Every structure is written in structure tokens, then in C-alpha cells.
Amino acid sequence: MSRHIHVIGIGAGDPDYLTVQAIQALNDTQVFFAMDKGEAKSDLVALRRQICARFIREPGYRFVELPDPKRSTDLGFGGDYCEAVSDWHAARARVWAAAIAAELGPDGVGAFLAWGDPSLYDSTLRILDAIKAEAAELDFTFDVIPGITAVQALTARHRVPLNEVGEPVLITTGRKLRAHGLHGSAVVMLDAECSFQVCPPDTQIWWGAYLGTADELLVAGAVGEVGARIAAVRAEARARHGWIMDTYLLRPAD
């Protein structure tokens, strides 16, 4: 027997987004590892605890909160950005490896709860792969439980299809949108700069923040008409909560 890790996608915020498979994995877990990102984001850990309290039938699990290494805020384009992210992931891998070794018995079951789906703009899988490559003495296996993404939640809440008929959709970041512009439909994530403002004013936008939670915010329309409103709503919400998770779908005008 060896240690086993579940990487569980817990959806975009609504506990009802959890799948039956995710609930089964929760009930199989003894130790939940969570990143401590400071007081501003403490409610993200609290939401994970609430999900466990709701769905785990026989409480006997425990949470282990891990200090999150600081990530460089001086991130430009190209190699500097990739190098900074790689350094951050390596630092996380060291913290995680030490915690798994110390907190999980040789045949124990642990879990990381990934917001949305572990495959989409989430570092959990890359970090676990790095641990397996760099810490061969730490014997563990892991599996992945898919979850509802912010992209799915966004289009569902706005009641719009993700793609146009026969057309592709790009999933990108605000940094890439600013660098390359908009060419066809695109979902934009990880955007702290309201990068949709670089788009032509007749570009259609469907924006959402805190999707699936009681604090959910939704705005839709042409960028030229609602862009300033989105920027203002976003700034106010971030100041009030101390953090924000938002995403949006863009579509050029016909």
C-alpha cells in the first residue's frame, strides 16, 4: 500500500455543483490539504470546510493548512513570467512534499480540493507531478475528479452557448488578450487589469464574478456600454472582499 491523493474539482462555488464522484472521494479522505493564502482569502478555506461538513457522512477527517509561498508580483511577458511561475510551483512542491510525508501515513488518503476543475488554470497537477519527479522517496499515487468550471458556470448563468455554430473558442488570460488582441470568441481568465477594454466597443461581453456563490455578480452587453461599469463593480467587490475570482466570455460583433 502507498499513500493516495485525490485531486477533487469542487466546482465554481455552489456546493450543489459537486458530482457524486466528488462526494465519494470526499468520504474516502482522511486529510485535506489547503493553502493558507492569508486573511484576505481565508473564506476560500472556510468554503472548503463547509463543503466537507455538508457532504462527509462520518466526520473523522482533518484539515492541514499549508503556508503558500509568495509569488513574484513583478511579472512581465515571455520568459520572466514563466520563470516566476516555475519558481513559485517549485516552492509549493517543497511545502506540499514535506506536508504529505509528515501528515499522511504510509497507506493514508489525502486530498487537495481544486476550485472549478483541476485541468483549467490550476497548478495542483503540475505540482504533484513535480513532487513525484523530485522526491522519488515519497511514495504516493493520485487521481483526478473533474469539477464544474467557471466557464460552464458563467455560460449557464448568462444562458448563452459557449461557442458559435461551427466556430472555435479560445481560453486565454488577460495578459495574452492585451498582447494579441481578440480573434474570434474567447473566454478570459486570470485578468486583474480588465483587459476587455482593449477590444472594440461593439464586442459583446458576458462577465461574472464569485460565480455560484451568494456574492455572485453578472454583467453583460457591449464593451463600449458596460465596460466601465464592470471595471467599477469589480474594483468595489475586490476592495470589499479582499479578493476576486472573475471570468468573462468575449465575442466580436458580426
TrEMBL record:
Residues 5-226 form the Tetrapyrrole methylase domain. GO terms for biological process: cobalamin biosynthetic process; methylation. InterPro entries: 4pyrrol_Mease, 4pyrrol_Methylase_sf, 4pyrrole_Mease_sub1, 4pyrrole_Mease_sub2, CobF. It comes from the Bacteria. Pathway: Cofactor biosynthesis; adenosylcobalamin biosynthesis. One of its GO terms (molecular function) is precorrin-6A synthase (deacetylating) activity. Gene3D superfamilies: Cobalt-precorrin-4 Transmethylase, Domain 1, Methyltransferase, Cobalt-precorrin-4 Transmethylase, Domain 2. This is Precorrin 6A synthase. The lineage of its organism: Bacteria, Bacillati, Actinomycetota, Actinomycetes, Mycobacteriales. The keyword Transferase applies. Keywords: Cobalamin biosynthesis, Methyltransferase, S-adenosyl-L-methionine, Transferase.
